[in-house]
């Protein structure tokens, strides 16, 4: 069911500093920062040959990553995003397997304009999983 | 400098249950479990079209992931592994950039038989990074 690892997301307290770290110390290619006000984050993508790392800093008062950063002030691995071909079929399969989908179970429009769902970390080895339909 | 994302590692309390979760709920292909006594872990790889997820459970009394699992009993994202072409050149570049390499700075033989180094999480946004020469 799951396909490519679309990205690994790292929550960071300072996006410019994080981008500079990946660019200067790790010699990686980092794209321009983009504000995503509807998602409460500013992001920049590290482009790797086979996947991407999404660096995310909080944006606005109610950022969904604020609580994570208060627990992990230096930043930390936040979620994995796997691609699926049909997100509603994936959801139905997951629910039948006893896994929990966050929210009301209806796909939302994700940061890349495509349908996404998040799965409960307690059902997936303590890791938050995003599914993105591609 | 960094190349492909070789794998994302997830520390898990029960490898068989974790492998079944990825296989059954997420419909992924999971390889056979392998004991790596020299590294204090048992692992199984989830094969994705573009990368891999390494599921790791502790093996033996002094497993390097035991402390992580005592803080995160359900499991959690443990590290990212990036490929580099020349691990000593990568190390020298990192040290010049002010980043810390764990241990004595000499590459060790990693879980896949290739030279590896680990970088200090405090220098990389709270994420443990493994570099593997390929």
From TrEMBL, chains A, B:
One of the GO BP terms on file: L-methylmalonyl-CoA metabolic process
One Pfam assignment: Glyoxalase_4
SUPFAM superfamilies per UniProt: Glyoxalase/Bleomycin resistance protein/Dihydroxybiphenyl dioxygenase
GO molecular function, one term: methylmalonyl-CoA epimerase activity
InterPro entries reported for this sequence: Glyas_Bleomycin-R_OHBP_Dase (IPR029068), MeMalonyl-CoA_epimerase (IPR017515), MMCE/EMCE_epimerase (IPR051785), VOC_core (IPR037523)
Family matches, as PROSITE patterns: VOC (PS51819)
EC number(s) on file: 5.1.99.1
UniProt keyword annotations, A-Z: Cobalt, Isomerase, Metal-binding
Keyword Isomerase tagged: yes
Gene3D superfamilies (alphabetical): 2,3-Dihydroxybiphenyl 1,2-Dioxygenase, domain 1 (3.10.180.10)
Catalysis performed (reactions): (R)-methylmalonyl-CoA = (S)-methylmalonyl-CoA
Superkingdom of origin organism: Bacteria
Name this protein carries in UniProt: methylmalonyl-CoA epimerase
Provenance organism: Rubellimicrobium thermophilum DSM 16684
Lineage: Bacteria, Pseudomonadati, Pseudomonadota, Alphaproteobacteria, Rhodobacterales
């Amino acid at each position: 069911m799951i396909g490519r690892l679309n990205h690994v997301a790292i929550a960071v307290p300072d996006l410019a500093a994080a981008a500079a770290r990946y660019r200067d110390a790790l010699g990686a290619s980092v794209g321009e920062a983009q504000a995503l006000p509807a998602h409460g984050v500013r992001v920049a993508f590290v482009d790797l040959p086979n996947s991407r790392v999404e660096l995310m800093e909080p944006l606005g008062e109610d950022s969904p990553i604020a609580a994570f950063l208060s627990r992990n002030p230096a930043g930390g691995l936040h979620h994995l995003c796997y691609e699926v071909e049909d997100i509603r079929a994936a959801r139905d399969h997951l629910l039948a397997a006893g896994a929990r989908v966050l929210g009301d179970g209806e796909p939302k429009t994700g940061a890349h304009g495509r349908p996404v769902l998040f799965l409960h970390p307690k059902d997936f080895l303590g890791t938050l999983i995003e599914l993105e339909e591609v």
